[in-house]
């Protein structure tokens, strides 16, 4: 899955370029930087690679989401519809701009169920935020149509699906804005970093200023810049951007390995009657960083995960095991509005309501789902061994729990 598995001379070279000049900041210092503009270069590469007009790098994917929300004008009291299965950063960004996360069910695509989205629309809804989880995409045609019919903004959290596409368009470039994360475990990494992509010049200019204290970047130097609005410091450093530059050149290679390994592993699981696979709205566009599959019942899934664990095989299950970050069932801090400071009353009211809401449909899906992370470094032999071990573990668990 992650680009860090392909760390090498290319990354070191780009970082060394920056270390040679010592100019670690992306703005200013025009003389000493000797023509080195790694962040600008990476933004250009992102536009070319993913086919968008504008890209604004940020210090993280979370910062990218927050920046995108602000640039889209999402703020106090606005409702943002998002899925019950994502990463905590998605709702953190919504809350940070004063807006209200409205969580709705997923379907077997592991992303937003368009029918659940429709049912959640109120006069306060401002934005729909699909999250392209585990490398694969949401039902974008349906979601786009819902946005159009209801005059809503579409913001894609594509942090986990770099390189994925939907009907030929890069995930993250389909909505009004979209984001990637380049944290250490994503498909390509900067160490830490993120990006907002958009085709809208106005949204881009707002992102550009917001990530740098509201600077308009039009002065003769930084001191002379004007500040048309209040921003933050969500800047990426030149060091991080340099890593990303080496990584983005490896993206095709990363995707090819992921797709090959994913397909091989899948061919083993396809031999088990009863196993079904995640719905992928455009199978060609899966970035293949995960293979997500279902067993018929929750009990069988639990037994299989236990057996895989006993065999030393990591089997991502976000319902009971492994991980408290991704599914609403484990988000007590959100449901109980555990902030360090006073929360705005509209948010508090919404979260109190959320704490009372159950998600039987999502529970039914997530409790039967296993997501296997695809490694770039598996050899053919390791892959074969893994596939055979998984088959044996699954058959054993299913036999006992038939
Ligand atoms: C990783 C991730 C983010 C946030 O990215 P960071 O760079 O870690 O802040 C947001 N959304 C999803 C779905 C993610 O997986």
List the helices and strands and how they pair.
Blueprint: H1 9-21, H2 38-50, E1 54-58, H3 61-71, E2 79-83, H4 88-96, E3 100-104, H5 114-120, E4 125-128, H6 140-150, E5 153-157, E6 165-166, E7 169-170, E8 177-181, E9 194-198, H7 201-210, H8 238-248, H9 251-269, E10 276-277, E11 290-294, H10 298-310, H11 332-335, H12 345-355, H13 360-366, E12 369-373, H14 380-400
Parallel strand pairs: 2-3, 2-4, 4-5, 5-8
Antiparallel strand pairs: 1-9, 6-7, 8-9, 10-11, 11-12
Helix pairs in contact: 1-8, 2-8, 3-4, 3-7, 9-14, 10-14
Pyridoxal-5'-phosphate binds next to helix 3 and helix 4.
Verbal overview:
The chain is an alpha/beta fold and 402 residues long. It folds into 2 domains: 3-250, Type I PLP-dependent aspartate aminotransferase-like (Major domain) (Aspartate Aminotransferase, domain 2, 3-Layer(aba) Sandwich); 252-400, Aspartate Aminotransferase, domain 1. 40% of the residues lie in helices and 12% in strands. The chain has 14 helices and 12 strands. It has helices at 9-21, 38-50, 61-71, 88-96, 114-120, 140-150, 201-210, 238-248, 251-269, 298-310, 332-335, 345-355, 360-366, 380-400, and strands at 54-58, 79-83, 100-104, 125-128, 153-157, 165-166, 169-170, 177-181, 194-198, 276-277, 290-294, 369-373. The protein has a 7-stranded mixed sheet, with helices on both faces. Strand 2, helix 4 (88-96) and strand 3 (100-104) form a beta-alpha-beta unit. The protein is globular, with a radius of gyration of 22 Å. The chain starts with 8 loop residues before the first helix and ends with a helix. The model has no long low-confidence stretch (mean pLDDT 95). Bound molecules: pyridoxal-5'-phosphate. The modification N6-(pyridoxal phosphate)lysine is found at residue 186. Keywords: Aminotransferase, Pyridoxal phosphate, Transferase. GO terms for molecular function: pyridoxal phosphate binding; transaminase activity.
């Amino acid at each position: 899955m992650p680009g860090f598995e392909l760390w090498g001379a290319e990354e070191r070279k780009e970082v060394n370029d920056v270390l040679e000049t010592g100019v670690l900041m992306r703005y200013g210092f025009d003389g000493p930087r000797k023509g080195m503009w790694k962040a600008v270069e990476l933004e250009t590469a992102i536009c070319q690679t993913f086919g968008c007009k504008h890209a604004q790098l940020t210090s993280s994917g979370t910062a990218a989401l927050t920046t995108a929300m602000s640039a889209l004008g999402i703020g106090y009291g606005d409702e943002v519809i998002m899925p019950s299965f994502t990463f905590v950063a998605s709702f953190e960004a919504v809350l940070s701009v004063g807006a209200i996360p409205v969580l709705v069910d997923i379907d077997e695509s592991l992303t937003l169920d368009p029918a659940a989205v429709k049912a959640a629309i109120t006069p306060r809804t401002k934005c729909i935020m699909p999250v392209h989880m585990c490398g694969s995409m949401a039902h974008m045609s349906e979601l786009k149509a819902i946005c159009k019919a209801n005059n809503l903004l579409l913001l894609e959290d594509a942090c986990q699906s770099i390189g994925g596409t939907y009907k030929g368009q890069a995930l993250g470039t389909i909505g009004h804005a979209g984001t990637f994360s380049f944290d250490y475990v994503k498909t390509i990494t900067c160490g830490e970093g993120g990006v907002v992509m958009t085709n809208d010049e106005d949204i881009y200019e707002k992102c550009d200023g917001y990530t740098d204290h509201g600077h308009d970047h039009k002065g003769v130097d930084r001191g002379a810049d004007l500040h048309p609005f209040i921003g933050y410091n969500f800047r990426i450093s030149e060091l991080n951007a340099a890593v990303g530059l080496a990584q983005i050149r490896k993206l095709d290679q990363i995707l090819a390995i992921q797709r090959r390994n994913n397909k091989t592993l899948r061919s083993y699981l396809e031999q088990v009657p009863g196993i079904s696979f995640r719905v992928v709205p455009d199978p060609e566009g899966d970035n293949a960083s995960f293979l997500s599959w279902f067993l018929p019942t929750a009990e069988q899934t639990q037994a299989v995960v236990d057996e895989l664990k006993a065999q030393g095989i990591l089997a991502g299950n976000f319902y009971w095991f492994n991980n408290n970050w991704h599914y609403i069932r484990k988000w007590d801090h959100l449901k109980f509005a555990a902030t360090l400071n006073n929360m705005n009353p509209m948010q508090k009211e919404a979260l109190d309501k959320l704490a009372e809401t159950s998600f039987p449909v999502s529970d039914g899906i997530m409790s039967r789902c296993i997501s296997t992370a695809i490694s770039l470094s598996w050899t053919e032999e390791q892959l074969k061994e893994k596939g055979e071990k998984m088959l044996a573990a699954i058959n054993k668990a299913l036999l006992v729990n038939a």
